[in-house]
Amino acid sequence: MAKKYVYLFREGNASMRDLLGGKGANLAEMTQIGLPVPPGFTITTEACNEYYAIGENVPDGTWDQVWPALADVEAATGKQFGDKTNPLLVSVRSGAKFSMPGMMDTVLNLGLNDDTVEALAANTQNERFAWDCYRRFIQMFGDVVLEVEHYLFEQILETAKEKQGVRFDSELSPESLKWMVGEYKKQILRSTGKPFPMDPKEQLQLAVLAVFRSWNNDRANVYRIINNIPHDIGTAVNVQSMVFGNMGSDSGTGVAFTRNPSTGEKALYGEYLMNAQGEDVVAGIRTPQPIATLAQENADIYKQFVENSQRLEAHYRDMQDIEFTIERGKLYMLQTRNGKRTASAAIRVAVDLYHEGVISKEEAIMRIEPQQLDHLLHRRMDGEAKLQVLAKGLPASPGAASGKIVFSAEEAERQGQLGEKVILVRTETTPDDIRGILAAQGILTSRGGMTSHAAVVSRHMGKPAVCGCDALKIDYTQKLVAIEGVEYPEGSLFSIDGATGRVIKGEVKMVDPELSEGFKEFLGWADEISRLKVMANADTPAEATNARNFGAVGIGLTRTEHMFMDPERIPIVQEMILAQTLQEREVALEKLLPMQEEDFYGILKAMEGFPVTIRLLDPPLHEFLPHSEELIVEITKLRMSKSDPKALSEKESLLRKVRALSELNPMLGHRGCRLGVSFPEITVMQARAIFQASARLVKEGRDIHPEVMIPLTMGKEEFVMMRKLVDETAQAVMSEQNVKIPYHVGTMIEVPRAALLADEIGKVADFFSFGTNDLTQMTMGLSRDDAQGKFLPIYLEKNLLKTDPFVVLDRDGVGKLIDMAVKLGRSSNSGLSLGICGEHGGEPNSVEFCHIVGLNYVSCSPFRVPIARLAAAQAAVNQG
Amino acid sequence: MAKKYVYLFREGNASMRDLLGGKGANLAEMTQIGLPVPPGFTITTEACNEYYAIGENVPDGTWDQVWPALADVEAATGKQFGDKTNPLLVSVRSGAKFSMPGMMDTVLNLGLNDDTVEALAANTQNERFAWDCYRRFIQMFGDVVLEVEHYLFEQILETAKEKQGVRFDSELSPESLKWMVGEYKKQILRSTGKPFPMDPKEQLQLAVLAVFRSWNNDRANVYRIINNIPHDIGTAVNVQSMVFGNMGSDSGTGVAFTRNPSTGEKALYGEYLMNAQGEDVVAGIRTPQPIATLAQENADIYKQFVENSQRLEAHYRDMQDIEFTIERGKLYMLQTRNGKRTASAAIRVAVDLYHEGVISKEEAIMRIEPQQLDHLLHRRMDGEAKLQVLAKGLPASPGAASGKIVFSAEEAERQGQLGEKVILVRTETTPDDIRGILAAQGILTSRGGMTSHAAVVSRHMGKPAVCGCDALKIDYTQKLVAIEGVEYPEGSLFSIDGATGRVIKGEVKMVDPELSEGFKEFLGWADEISRLKVMANADTPAEATNARNFGAVGIGLTRTEHMFMDPERIPIVQEMILAQTLQEREVALEKLLPMQEEDFYGILKAMEGFPVTIRLLDPPLHEFLPHSEELIVEITKLRMSKSDPKALSEKESLLRKVRALSELNPMLGHRGCRLGVSFPEITVMQARAIFQASARLVKEGRDIHPEVMIPLTMGKEEFVMMRKLVDETAQAVMSEQNVKIPYHVGTMIEVPRAALLADEIGKVADFFSFGTNDLTQMTMGLSRDDAQGKFLPIYLEKNLLKTDPFVVLDRDGVGKLIDMAVKLGRSSNSGLSLGICGEHGGEPNSVEFCHIVGLNYVSCSPFRVPIARLAAAQAAVNQG
Lengths: 880, 880
Prior knowledge:
The structure is a homodimer of 880-residue chains.
Chain A: E1 6-8, H1 17-32, E2 40-43, H2 45-53, H3 62-77, E3 80-81, E4 87-88, E5 90-96, E6 106-110, H4 116-124, H5 127-145, H6 150-164, H7 174-192, H8 200-214, H9 218-226, E7 235-241, E8 252-257, E9 269-274, H10 278-283, E10 289-290, H11 292-297, H12 299-316, E11 320-327, E12 330-338, H13 343-355, H14 361-366, H15 370-373, E13 380-381, E14 389-392, E15 394-397, E16 400-406, H16 409-417, E17 422-426, H17 434-439, E18 442-445, H18 453-461, E19 465-467, E20 472-475, E21 480-483, E22 486-489, E23 493-497, E24 502-505, E25 510-511, H19 517-529, E26 533-537, H20 541-549, E27 555-559, H21 560-564, H22 570-578, H23 582-606, E28 611-615, H24 628-641, H25 645-661, H26 673-678, H27 680-699, E29 705-710, H28 716-737, E30 744-749, H29 752-756, H30 758-762, E31 767-770, H31 772-780, H32 784-789, H33 792-797, H34 811-828, E32 833-836, H35 844-853, E33 857-860, H36 865-879
Parallel strand pairs in A: 3-4, 16-17, 17-18, 18-19, 26-27, 26-33, 27-28, 28-29, 29-30, 30-31, 31-32, 32-33
Antiparallel strand pairs in A: 1-2, 2-7, 5-6, 5-7, 8-9, 8-11, 9-10, 11-12, 13-25, 14-24, 15-19, 16-23, 20-21, 21-22, 23-24
Helix pairs in contact in A: 4-5, 5-7, 6-7, 13-19, 19-36, 20-23, 22-23, 23-27, 24-25, 27-28, 35-36
């Protein structure tokens, strides 16, 4: 017997998301709790997966289950599919487990044909409505199911309007619409070689297949990669009887959130349009009315809707995003789902729901996607800045951005790859623009509301967006936008403020974000729950202070080379590198010592009370010298001009040194503690700077905890040698200064061999810090800089890697090695402190991994500290 | 109670090498079996190790044990230390577990002072002899123990000869010698601030300390690094009563081997000098007599010596290297040890001893150091070549070499680092020259015999050497050598033939070595005993044939990129790389296909009956393009001259492509199967070439076994994708050609992640080949090319790594990973074939490791196949 591939709405419930998809499960749940949902059924995700498994064929038995389900819908609605007097019309919609807004295809009004359109006209006594439905259906079906180019239908629409001499679609007469239907059908025959199918069952079969196919289209694949959604979970297909919001002025359609999705404020928030179909609202083509207006326009319907909304929020225990339709004065609930929201709204909703007694602290913690917080931690416009406001639109997604304006997604992507900051300016956006949105700093549209595609996607991605800014007159062909008569060509600098909707000329100064009280309270709960501590990577006192403000309990990584790169110091650093003898080198080091001492003094003081992990010099020395190619150009010029033999000789000498230091694979070259092995005097200088700074602070009564970290260790022997240099210097300074300094010496674990020998190294080290950037490079044999621009995207596209291993820690390979090192290290040193200081330290999935393998802390950039705190708490809730 | 640190010779035996060192254990053994050994005792290696452990202090109780042992020697010899009538004189010699010839220090005639010298003169009735002993003792003690510069004594010696007006040391009168003793003592007071010690016990204590210290001198450290001798085993000190070979014409000293150390021929082979001390023979200062001459000169002594020698060989069951002294007509045996021998001698001795019934096949196998075979497998002079022979010396170490002549070890080292081939030409060599000898292709000396330093060291290192070539007149200051009046400056091209002793002008054509019958028989025994199979790395049919001749049972690695590098093909390869479209690339690949097919046809045919493992294209594509720096110079010139805008534009375009392909860390970049993932058409072309060649051979009735190897795999998914391309191409060719081709598809394991995920990959691969070069680079985070010239020597010097991990496989780290991968791979695929194809495959210690972890085969360069076969057999004997 075939599997059950088809579920009536009344057969399912909210727990069946895997099988019915999010939309299907919620339609079933709403049906179960007695809300007015138009009857329908769901074809399962299993059917979709089976479809791909057997080479894109609908699995046996599917249609045998669809037709009885359809009969059930016919019985419930009293209508019949293809019936010439009372025809059933349905929508066919995709719906995966995870919401992928706009990524897959939808067909409405399915069931219309030359016969049923007449019945619809007769039953509604509205010929115009019926033919408008029909022409919309053919257009949508032609586009989505038959894959006829969209613009071919648009051309016919434009011709019809020209012929009739009208400006808006809504002004088209029934005759024009009928003419269009004829032209549409001709176009379909021309484009596909087959007539438009008149049999509603054939229409349904083709539409279901199109939804299955849409799972694998380019847009959907990209969306899944960006959002880390697996490719193999498939989509369900929802077939639902149609209700019409465009049956006249007593009909309408809308969407609403039970709380404000931008701020989290507890108030119904949404928009509706009378005499419109659902897609009109979200597509942003007409600017809709705020939901509150409905209370005046139709108090009864509004009351029903409010009750239903409250019931749904209470039922789901979370803020809901609800779609509804009013058909001739009757309210239907078409969809509910947990509403997408900005990060600040998400926090407010979670904190409020806790205080309302609806959810626990743990549940509150689990309600926020940590990655979303990133958004709150970005910069916003300086309140002091004087702004030349050009226009104002809807505050569609908070945050602020400056950049060059561009008018196409392709251009945004191109410029983005060149490192340019751009604002994507469009009349409206569509799912095809997804890569451009991703590449842009911010989005600005001239049409569409708070729930338009641009707004929803921007909020989700944490990009600032201003939508529905009518003042913009965009001319794509000339690549310019006119505002109040002034033209701005592509490349003009604009700023947008997604919190207020302002569009501003030029670049605007931004300021650092601060945490709201609610946010602090929320993160406090996270810390109560977490087992991992969160530290920060910081190289300056200012960064350290910043990190403290974001809740970091120490510094997991201070990169001393950033101090070497200071323009005032680089000549001294070069002097040290170019030294021919130990004596010369020591002279230069002597000059660097007081500078480094000041650096460490500042940072240790800023982190008083917490550990500060200072990594000794790590990069290869040639990074501090000029690039050989520049020198070659200069030398070739000097040789040809023969004008300055002295300069030539100096440049040649410098080039020789650069060449002597240059390496084929610098990542695996003369760097890390290998520098200290070759030039112990550099290590001694750095250690002296650390302990002299520490001694001063101890004398000032400060509670400081320097932790000296040896980079690129590959075995016990070299660690012992380096540790000896550090310990001896510490002893010397402590006895010179007559103070005691509490300190530790530990190592990075970033070379695979060090992980394999962690038991040996653990015996002599106080702590391990996994440098997951380099550990990933070496374990996977991937040079990050080379891979990310070149072949890594191909690996992700071809599904040879699940995620970019430099973003999400590779648990299978790198993770296995870390797990091994943790066990080996603890086996020989039970007091070993273990952490991670790669960029993975602020990435939620990787933080969860760190929790699972039992690290003591993660360390990440200051702005990611709140994300890591939340991720650590979620890991504790999820993993125990 | 203190440990027993001192053993009389009669208390020890040959099994106590660890404790007594090789020399001490053998002196004890000779004493035990009743040979005439001058009495003495040994201070243990434990005492030396303890000396270092407690900060260079002689451990408590040592002297308390030394004095009674000395008393025992006094009793045995009837002489007394410091006695004014019958004084005991002793030698003090170092002696570690492993022989380190000339690396540490020796003091002779210890016990002489102003009083005992008179007694010695009276007792021997030879004033000249006594004072010559005394001045030699002071000079040696001053140099070795008191660390006074050697040349200061030489100056006094030269002055004495001038004053007396003589040419040779032996002509110096007693008066001159007495004058010299006075001057030597003054020099010591000047240099050290203390008088020369007159107390023999103090002399002995200082000498023992000097031997302990000598364990850690620079020469000894370098020797241990080169010879893989651990640094922590310490040296013993042998204190032995002196006998004198220089007491007149009835005294003498010599060294002899029980068989010929160059050929292995069973005949006593050695040299002696009458009226000389032992050091005179080995130092090569006077050219000694062949041992056979002794039969005429003193038949009785010769007979005793032959008997003793035969007894020693039978006792030790191996060829012996024996030192003896004749004091006033009485024979003393001073030392015996297993004799160093050339590789061909070693094989002949082992094979002969087996056939003589002395040792088993297993013992024979264990008698040869595999590394030594390298020497037999190098090229020799072409018998057809016309040679301009300039001179003839002793055939001191077989093999032939050509190179530029240099006159100092430093210059040899410097030129060697620049990749120059040099012949080191010296009057004689000393242990200080060790680095120069290592860097040279061959050694040529004008003085010294077959047992001189140059000869012994060269034979051990497998370097050709011609010694004692009197015709050479070397002028170090002018850097030239004169032969029969013709002067040859430094840098002149010479060749030497160590098998005949010929010195030849210019470069000589060399021919490939062949295996002797004895060698083949010997290696046949090895194969009977081994568990590992030995394959070869070969890229051409000629190399494959060579490998077969050396006993390879297949090819473990064919590098297809070497075929791409062919000068005729490189333009087509570049065309492929620079292709803008898939179509363009396929046009170029179409041209490469028939060429690659011919390559594979030849190599598969040459290895008929055995597997041939073909690795798909591995290096990054930019390796096939010109270097960016060259292009930049050309472009800068073209820009400045403004002469040829077209050429400029072409070069600029090429530079852009070179830059686009250039990588920061190419080792971890776009190479290996990543090329196939990006450009599957390249993989398909290579697979097609392999299978089309195979199909032709199958049709010709050949028994061929192609094995397709995917490089740089990091996970299962990419391997599956690559395997699919190969399998599909194989299927296509087999059905086009209607043949069946037996083939396998496997992977390199060279990325640490692949080793960690070996269970996953094992499920879908037919074989693993550990690419230990890259696996070492990635696991240790070491770029081979960058490390070896720069910091790796420092790591070896500072003992942070035991051996160069690119020469000897790093068992601790890389080995642990391989072991893990072997277990994981076999756990998921019991039929998995496992091998190694890095350069470690021909290195004995690494081969042993491969045996231990249970690999199926090793693969190495053809010339190393015999070494690997022997090493594999030894591993089986040692490890079971």
